[in-house]
Amino acid sequence: MSTGQPTLMHQRPQPEKQTKFDGMLDWYMRGVDKSKKSAKYRKGACENCGATTHKKSDCMERPRKVGARFTGDNIACDEYEQPDVNLDYDGKRDRWNGFNPNDYDRVMEEHALVEKAKQQLKADTLETELTSSHQESGEDQKREAGGSDNEKESENEDMCAETVGVPGQKFDSKQRTTVRNLRIREDTAKYLLNLNLNSAFYDPKSRSMRENPYTNTGKVPSEVPFAGENFVKASGETSDMARAQLFTWEAFERGVDLHLQGEPTKAELLYREVNQRKEAFNHEIKQDILDKYGGEEYLKVPPKELIFSQNERYVEYSRTGRVIKGEEKVPVKSKYEEDKLDQNHTAVWGSYWKEGKWGYSCCHSLVKFSYCTGVAGQEAEREAEEYITTAMKDTQEVESKSLVELHKERMVEKKKNKKKVTQEELDKIREEKVQDAIREIREEIDQVPENNSATNNKRAYSSMQADPVAPTEEQMEAYHRIKKMKNDPMNDFIGKYY
Question: Which residues, other chains included, contact 51 with Cβ-Cβ below 8 Å and sequence gap of 6+?
């Protein structure tokens, strides 16, 4: 409706721009559409069952020996076309979303069958009693049968109730237990204890609040009226009661007919007896171990309260730290062995210190568990130090000289040691080396077989396996002297002079 004046309606959410969500009753359809059933196979349908809403690879029906595509018989119904359900934030998180109330009919049918079975059992029991009793008259039997209807009905209900499994408890027909699940109107609701949005979570379906609603308020959990479903008070005899209940459950699982609420005195006596037997058994085992291995004296230790308690020792000290009155505190001994001598040493290990290493002061040895050398070891150490110091001085003097000075000194020494040799002596030495080389070559030629003689130009099989070594000048001179030339007219005279 237009007012004819400027308004702020443009700042409000526009209806045409709002997202529309589905309602509470909109949900996916389940099952198949039996109203539309085909009598023949349709093109593009499932080859196994004949439905058009899925393919053969997605078919959930048992694989047929011959599919509906070839037989055309027993065509399955099509599934419903599922709508695109668009739910809001609350709709996605609704635990009852999609619940079908008709599913509860199965529960009602089960209860009806139970009631029918109870009636049948009651009728059978009455019939057996009427046929088996012959002692009393017919009127008395009818009166007893009519008067015991209520008792028999309650007994039958108890028999049915016994079949119900109660976790952690024995459920007997004579021991009725009820759980108060509903809240009394005088009590404050759990979700009203703390109205802070960040307080403990409250489950409306199970009506439970597991965490403590007073967590951030600074209150002690043991003093608040409600500290959460998971809180268990540990004050008083609560822990003893919990242990007794656990003992009762374990005893019942092992075949002992015991109930804590029904027979508390019996349960308490059994619990005490079992604990006494357990303590006696543990004490017997402990005594056997001590008798076999010993060590009982280590168990007789005074309590810590006496060990670390205060004492009456009074001591006064002067400004310099000297004791004026009382006894000075005895220094605590080390946990390691003291005054222990190794080998034949007369001093303990660690009585000598040198250059960051420990040793023995009797012989100045820095090797642990070594043999003691006494005064001789000290003198040897002193001589070694003197030798090292003199060597260090020499090296320092040498290093102090420059490279030029060192080179000049070496050249002077070489000139002094060098001897003057004439050219005739050098030629004589070289000729001797050449003659030795000629002799070696002739010996090698004489050792070569006839088939591999010098006239044969073929190499031997293993001639290339030896490591190649460069010949010397004397060997090359010997080779040139022995070598024969075919066109040389002096070939016949070579062997005579060489």
Answer: 32, 45, 59, 75, 76, 77, 78, 79
First to last CA, the chain: 144
Please classify residue 365 by burial: count the beta carbons closer than 10 Å to its beta carbon, then call 0-12 exposed, 13-18 middle and 19+ buried: buried
Average pLDDT, stretch 75-90?
Answer: 90
pLDDT tens for 331-372 read 766 766 778 888 888 898 888 998 888 999 899 888 888 889
Strand stretches in 285-366, DSSP E: 316-317, 323-325, 352-354, 357-359
Q: Which residues fall within 8 angstroms of residue 34, CB to CB, at 6 or more apart?
A: 77
Give CA–CA dist 228/285, Å, rounded.
44
How far does Cα 71 stand from its chain's mean position? 60
**What was the pLDDT predicted at 167?**
43
383-432 pLDDT tens trace: 888 888 888 877 776 666 777 887 888 888 777 766 566 788 888 888 99
For residues 318 and 304, give the distance between their C-alpha atoms in angstroms, rounded to a whole number. 33
Residue with tokens 């012989």: 363
- CA–CA distance from 410 to each of 115, 391, 404, 413, 416 (Å)? 128, 21, 10, 5, 10
DSSP state of 32: B
Q: Averaged over 365-382, what is the pLDDT?
A: 88
H-state helical runs in 45-104:
68-71, 89-92
Q: How crowded is residue 153: how many other Cβ atoms within 10 Å of its Cβ?
A: 13
Residue 85 makes CB contacts below 8 A (sequence gap 6+) with: 22, 26, 27, 28
Short-list 128, 116, 98, CA closest to 29: 98
Model-wide pTM > 0.85? no
Between CA 160 and CA 165 the distance in angstroms is 11
